[in-house]
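Researcher: Please translate sequence to structure tokens.
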Amino acid sequence: MKLRLVSLLAAVLVAMLVPVPSAVAGNWAITYLDPLPDTFAAGQPYTAGFWVLQHGSHPSYGELGATALVFTPSQGDPVVFPGVALREPAHYAAAFALPHDGTWRVSARQGVFADYEIGTLTLPGGLVVSPPPAPMPDGEKSPWGAIRPPAIALNGGGAGQAQPVAPSAAAAAPESPASLGMVLAAAGLVVVAGVALLMGGRRVRNRLRRR
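Model: Translation complete:
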């Protein structure tokens, strides 16, 4: 029974120490929209340019995958408009037309990264963009020229020269899953050590009783 318990705890500890896949190991992305009209109407076609930036500051270091803009009404199913890659790195465009008036939640599908909540669109009316989390600096040289993400300054510096945006408390950058894994691993070590001490104490008590 004791051997099974130790084996189970060891398996849990190993699972905690398994590396998190690179797609989620502390990686996240933000979608920035190119300038759009001030007002929108149902049934009218629009084309939105958008940038999917890893850590809010640079193109994805790996294969990003499919992108899209998603419009979800207050009632009913979401409407998805696939993104098409443009010439610039991390730059996409999606043509869309919404079928009816109302309030639409706007989000972006970001390939291997989690979906990103952009804001709320009211028809007829305008788009209210949610405050994004502050971008992380990036040491690589900026791959953009005059056509660049709205959040990136054109100063010849790296993509880490993003113009700072004050995030709201709810929009703070997510905690790295890798850091969470380290905390869980440490907790697992404490549990295993505690069980080992408990079993060792029982053995000592049994020996003293035999004497």
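Researcher: Any highlights?
Model: The chain has two helices and nine strands.
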